Fold this protein.
Amino acid sequence: MKRIIISLSVLGVVLVAAGCNTTESSRNLADPMVPGKVLAQQVCSNCHGIDGNSINPTFPKLAGQQAEYIVSELKEFKSHDRSDPAGYQYMWGISRSLTDKQITELAEYFSSQKNRPDKSDNAKLLAEGEDIFKHGIPGGQTPACATCHGKDGAGGGNGVFPRIAGQHADYIAKQLWVFKNTNQRPDGTLMKVITNGIPKSITPEQIKAVSLYLSTI
Ligand code: HEC
Ligand code: HEC
């Protein structure tokens, strides 16, 4: 009798362990069998939100982002080519063991979620930002953001141009500074021209305005 109880409890332990290991509930980033969607909902969601609409602006929204852009960023974090500080602190480790298949599935999951814009009632700054987005910076070399990122800011060009509409203002501003002052983003050549346009560079006030405007559309 005692023996049966022991083997039943052993069986129980084995079943529980097996339960934790199923690829439908695994948080194991190093297991190539876990589907991207499972990782998205159980790991990425902690920072980027379950539907890709993060709350904290440290974490960019991924909802409605261009799928090809998500793929290319994940590969650049994995290869360490994208090295802006928050990128390496948070994303190098996370992307280390992802397979190409998982990366594609993660991109499909987040790109098919609906972006929810932020809100602001700073009418003056919003108007200034809208002007920069639609018409560029007068007298300078900074063209309208809409030229590349699309009329509605949703991105395009097979993901060469990311969605910037509805992204957190603080994240947009931070990235504009990264493009302006560093070479930490390897595909940033076009954005360097924009942020550092000769003869007139985009100013801190203009960065604030266009970032705030974009976060609300
Ligand atoms: C612990 C928090 C955290 C987790 C978990 C996390 N990320 Fe991130 N992720 C970040 C931060 C912070 C950034 C912004 C890095 C920067 O500023 O360069 C980021 C950036 C990204 C970007 C680039 C977005 C852009 O607009 O350029 C992608 C794509 C991304 N993460 C995908 C994922 C995926 C997919 C997962 C799950 C496998 C994941 N992240 C898990 C914190 C996290
Ligand atoms: C000539 C084309 C072009 C124009 C004009 C342009 N961009 Fe970009 N932008 C790009 C490309 C290409 C990337 C992707 C860079 C990369 O993959 O690292 C990008 C990336 C970005 C990112 C990073 C997005 C992310 O999720 O990390 C932001 C923010 C951004 N652009 C904002 C702007 C703003 C604001 C303007 C207008 C002042 C603008 N861009 C005008 C081509 C352009």
